[in-house]
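sanity check this fold:
=====
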Amino acid sequence: MTIKLPKNQKIVFEAASPTEEKTFEQLSEETELKLEHISGASFALESQGLISITTLSDSKPSLTDEGSLYLQHSLPELRLYQAVRLLGELETEFDLSQAISQSSLNKNEVSVALSNYARKDYGTINQGKIISSRDFDPKSDPEQVALSSIDQGVEPDQSIVTRLESRGLININQLTTRSVILTKKGISERKKGVKISQSVTNLTPQMLSQGNWENLEYTAYNVEAEAAPYIGGRVHILRETAERVKDTLVSMGFQEMEGPHADSEFWINDCLFMPQDHPARTHWDQFALSVPPAQNLPTDIVEKVQNSHLDGVGTDGDGYHSPWSEDVALGIDLRGHTTSLSMRYLSGQAIGHLEPPQRFFSVEKVYRNDTLDPTHLLEFFQIEGWVMAENLSVRDLMGTFTEFYRRFGITNLKFKPHYNPYTEPSFELFGEHPRTGELIEIGNSGLFRDEVLHPLGVSCDVMAWGLALERLLMLMYGFEDIRDVHGTLCDLQLLRSTGVPY
């Protein structure tokens, strides 16, 4: 008995061979049907047992526009290395700005060069100085050689391919080849003859209005037919984790703080009892803005903070005996920590006077002029928090951390005594990396000193901390380089595929 097939299925069925496989592309060329029509018809025929489909998958790297640019002009870190070598001998210290100028790197390429220079062990970059410590031919750099190989159709070592993909210099093209061949059933049925069925693919408004839809034959809908992948947008894993941190702290009784990213040095540093000649307050560690100075600082608090710096607090207070200038305090910087928000809230300047007990937190960006490496970026998220209450101790602080990190599956915390100008006692927190076993610093904490609290009008204890959100991610997911999560070297596939468990 003659079988009936929809038009496209009949065309593909008659073009398929009983002895050799034909690819979808070959069938498309022979029949002049579009590939998507070949695909739909083939899967429908396969579901009826008339043909067999063989699928072969392969991947092939290709250069992105950025990769092609670096193939032509060489990688940014190599151009920076060559510039340093032109300046002088190995192990000689040069101004970083001079080396960057010599390299002719553009603004976007500078950050790429700095992050990869140290990673590849070309030398060191520290506090505005750069050193080259290796003597080698830049043309032999494995990643530069790999770009050339890929351009010529030769695939390099997989580890280098992975690195180039994470840098956005190559795309991995997934190649899927499908071939069809008639089955025994297909050969038998084709001998009987094939006719085009008068089946309907789409139900239209006219069919419904005319009432003839009940008597029509409809083409079966193949729900297993493969469709093109769709990659939609999603919330960044860092922001997702930040929201989970917020939910966790709110469930622990904390309220969220808000405040400016650019603030006066008074709130960022002076209120924290950081001497104005402290190294961390130089342009090497923070970003000063060329804007008018701050206005309307609270005069009474400014005076008390100044006295705290000069003379200390209480009968045993001694101060720093170093110059203190209100002009410096009025300067505007990008905040290097969100403790500036804590100072505003504790002083009553943010939402009014606070009576103990109180718990507040923030999860926001901070900005520091750090050397880029696997655990440091120029901007990152800080988990700021503090508790105001009577008779607090280090045990309360350690217990808070133990409970907070337990909710993220992290139970092997280590604590190490530390010095801060603004807390006493103080300690750092460390967590064990799940893959390397290395102890990673994840935060700093302590009880605010009287020199901090007295000028703000706080008479009870306040325990406080600053934790790194990116390093929490490293402990949760095993990331070894926070640049995989955000920045110019981020791993897009990792961001698309990693979810935040609740």
